[in-house]
Design a protein that fits this description.
By secondary structure, this protein is α/β, with parallel strands linked by helices. The chain contains 17 helices and 27 strands. Strands 4-3-2-1-5-8-10 form a seven-stranded parallel sheet, with helices on both faces. The chain has a five-stranded mixed sheet with strand order 11-17-22-26-27. The mean pLDDT is about 95.
């Protein structure tokens, strides 16, 4: 396969030549979703030159060291949107060096097209190949179709290290205000490439970069119990007639808990369908084993071993996986039409079912909201699953009141921990509190939660009882003493 069409060979330049196009104060739109598909050769040269200061960086949902990490460490970024999760960028945001705007991923293209924010100057996109019609994305699409349409100036990194057998797996569709005709996860409605006028391409950089690979924690006892509880709940839903035997299409968030849950599904279900943001190693395993018949996502977020499995068996996976733009993978219309089962991981939940997905103790951002809100608000069944403790038991993940709200109680159906399941559907706030305390909180913290709830009911027995002077005291105790547990005898 010809990676760069002959008619475009005159646009091939070096990374350093490409970096010279980047000027101080520019707004850059860069490809990349999680650690997959971000440009790295050009950002490395931008950082080395160190001249393009005060950059506003917008990605699909990239977190790679080769983009976020290197540019934030060089002190070149002053603004960031919509999702961050790289440790260097996170530190820069929390230190006040970078102004951070967090958005739901389905909203990013809408926000960009509205022209209310910064005007994009240059898009930098990693791709598989490019010709006169456009370019083929890599293992992630994210919002590159939007970036290519909005930017008059585009720099491409053509990555030769990725297999050209990915061609044909993409389905690129532009949202134009009409009904999106997707009625099953692998319905195809677009093109296999991103249309791009060659006149907009400033330069093409040829690379061999392997990039980064996500690393998933080994499945432990907690994640196995979480998976069993989720699967047990879903089996009950099938038995009650609320889900078909093969379940409605499901979405699973990013991370080790989600990966463990996916592996667990293989024990009890067949013929599943997946409509999600990401496909991780666990999902690939389900597809290979026949548990999942078809899958759609905006990113194949695979470990090194997972990518090896994908490319060695690409003909098998190509007929079962579709890679889409994030505006389609996360679109409320499709999520609601398909009645998705949404499974995501919170940082903490409170007695009434509110969820914090992004902040530590209310003030320090850990990551962005990503797509969890897109799915939580619109899914047919919304599940948030987490271990009940963090920091070796110093933090309870069930608290009186969350220190930051990403998903209100109105968008949360089910809470799951290793201790059990709280089905919050059609429950009042007080009924929710009792279920969450008894079914989900860790036994070490249940007496404290019971005491708080009982005293709140006794003093202000309204619809949602709270002791405002105590509601965030657990977080303050952790901030000052390093644990949410009171001192001995306290």
């Amino acid at each position: 396969m010809e990676r760069v069409a002959k008619s475009l060979r005159n646009k091939v330049i070096s990374p350093s030549e490409a970096a010279e196009f980047i000027k101080p104060g520019m707004c850059l739109l860069c490809s990349g979703f999680s650690q997959i598909g971000y440009p790295s050769a050009i950002p490395k040269e931008i950082a080395r030159l160190g001249k393009a200061t005060d950059l506003f960086l917008i990605t699909s949902a990239g977190v790679g060291d080769g983009l976020d990490g290197i540019l934030s460490q060089a002190g070149l970024v002053s603004g960031r949107a919509p999702y961050q999760g790289n440790k260097w960028m996170r530190n820069a945001v929390n230190d006040g060096k970078v102004s951070y705007c967090d958005y739901h991923l389905s909203d990013l293209p809408v926000k960009l097209r509205s022209s209310a924010g910064p005007k994009p100057d240059i898009a930098i996109i990693e791709c598989l190949s490019v010709d006169e019609k456009g370019f083929v994305p890599v293992c992630s699409v994210g919002a590159v179709e939007c970036f290519a349409a909005l930017c008059d100036k585009i720099l491409l990194e053509v990555n030769y290290s990725l297999s050209d057998k990915l061609v044909g797996m993409h389905d690129i569709y532009y949202v134009d205000g009409n009904c999106i005709p997707i009625h099953a996860p692998t319905d195809r409605i677009g093109t296999t490439y991103v249309p791009c006028d060659p006149a907009r391409i400033l330069g093409i950089v040829e690379t061999e970069g392997s990039g980064e690979y996500p690393k998933f924690k080994e499945t432990d006892e907690i994640s196995e119990k979480l998976a069993r509880n989720i699967i047990g709940f879903l089996k009950q839903e099938v038995a009650a007639g609320r889900q078909p035997q093969s379940l409605r299409p499901f979405q699973s968030g990013f991370g080790s808990v989600a990966n463990a849950t996916l592996y667990g599904l293989s024990q009890d279900f067949k013929g599943l369908r997946m409509y999600s943001e990401v496909i991780q190693d666990g999902a690939l395993f389900l597809i290979k084993s026949g548990v999942v018949a078809e899958a759609s996502a905006t990113c194949l977020c695979l470990s090194k071993e997972g990518q090896k499995e994908l490319f060695e068996n690409i003909d098998f996976y190509r007929s079962r996986i579709v890679i889409r733009p994030q505006e389609i993978s996360n679109h409320p219309e499709i999520i609601r039409r398909l009645q998705i089962i949404s499974i995501n991981t919170p940082i903490e939940v409170d007695l009434y079912g509110n969820v914090n997905s992004t902040h530590i103790c209310g003030t320090k951002t850990y990551n962005g909201v990503g797509g969890s809100g897109d799915f939580a608000r619109n899914a047919g069944l919304t599940i948030f699953a987490t271990g009940s403790l963090a920091k070796g038991g110093k933090i309870s993940c069930v608290v009186p009141m969350v220190s930051h709200v990403d998903h209100t109680e109105h968008d949360v159906d089910v809470i799951v921990t290793e201790w059990g399941v709280a089905d919050l559907r059609w429950k009042s706030p007080k009924e929710r509190a009792e279920l969450i305390i008894e079914n989900c909180a860790h036994p070490e913290y249940r007496p404290m939660l019971r005491s708080y709830f009982q005293r709140a009911c006794a003093r202000c027995n309204g619809q949602t009882p709270h002791l405002l002077e105590e509601a965030l005291s657990w977080h303050e105790r952790f901030r000052t003493t390093g644990t949410m547990k009171p001192s001995e005898g306290g």
